[in-house]
Every structure is written in C-alpha cells, then in structure tokens.
Design goal:
By secondary structure, the chain is an all-alpha fold. The chain is built from 5 helices and 2 strands, in the order H-H-E-E-H-H-H. The protein has a two-stranded antiparallel sheet. Helix 3 packs parallel to helix 4 and helix 4 crosses helix 5. The radius of gyration is 17 Å and the shape is elongated.
Length: 139
C-alpha cells in the first residue's frame, strides 16, 4: 500500500507541465500514424527539411509560414501533427488555409483519424530505436 508521501509525489508529477520541445521533436516523440492514414503506419520520423518546416511552424516568433512545395512530401501529416501539438500543449485558435476544397477534405479526414487514435497508440519501444517509419516519399 502506497504511503502518503508516495501518493503526494505521484500527484505532483501528474501536475507538472509537459516538457518544452521543438515542434519537430514533439512530433517524433508523440505522434503515431494509425492504419488507413498512411501507407506506413507507426511512429512518425521526419525528414530534415520537414524538421525545419515544423520548427518554423512551432516558433512563437514566426507569425506566418508560407510554403511552395511539390506534392507527396508528407505535408498533410506534418500539418496534422502540428495541430495535434497545439491542441495537446498550447490550445489556441488555429487557422490553416489550403489551396483547394479537396485538400481540406483530405486534411479533415486525417485529423479525425489521428484524433480517434491516441497520440501514443504505437507504444513500440522507446527513443530513436523505435522510430522506424518515415513520412513523405523517397525516390
């Protein structure tokens, strides 16, 4: 049976705010793609250029991030993960503008699927060794 001191210590640990991480670090640590959203479900592993975009999105000193990008580079997953980070760590109004209605539908479906699966649903180990999936495409 736990003592009062142990119960108190656990309660205080539960009240501690989450650690401050760069957005790219948070995404790779917390986000897991569920089946049906990605051809490679599992923990997210960002490419170097995606880390730069994520960190710009998460930087409080940057008001607007505008991208000119090709298709199939993992942007939908990146944007969805950024929104999930803001919801989990710093709730605030969010405005995402996409160029076409079809893009909005894709992102909307992905948000629902990501939200319906727990952010930590892929409890497949710990640290970098557990990161076995890439988002985006290669080749």
């Amino acid at each position: 049976m736990p003592t009062i001191d142990q119960i108190r210590a656990e309660a205080l640990r539960a009240l501690m705010p989450p650690p401050r991480l760069r957005l790219s670090e948070w995404i790779e640590r917390e986000v897991c793609l569920p089946e049906g959203v990605s051809s490679q479900p599992g923990p997210v592993r960002l490419w170097p250029f995606q880390r730069e975009i994520a960190d710009a999105i998460g930087d409080p000193l940057i008001e607007r991030v505008t991208l000119v990008k090709p298709v199939r580079v993992g942007f939908t997953t990146l944007l969805t993960s950024a929104v999930a980070s803001f919801v989990a760590n710093d709730p605030a109004p969010i405005l995402c503008l996409l160029p076409a209605e079809s893009d909005c539908r894709v992102v909307s479906r992905m948000w629902w699927k990501l939200a319906s699966s727990a952010l930590r649903a892929c409890n497949v180990g710990s640290g970098q060794a557990a990161r076995s999936r890439d988002i985006g495409t290669r080749g």
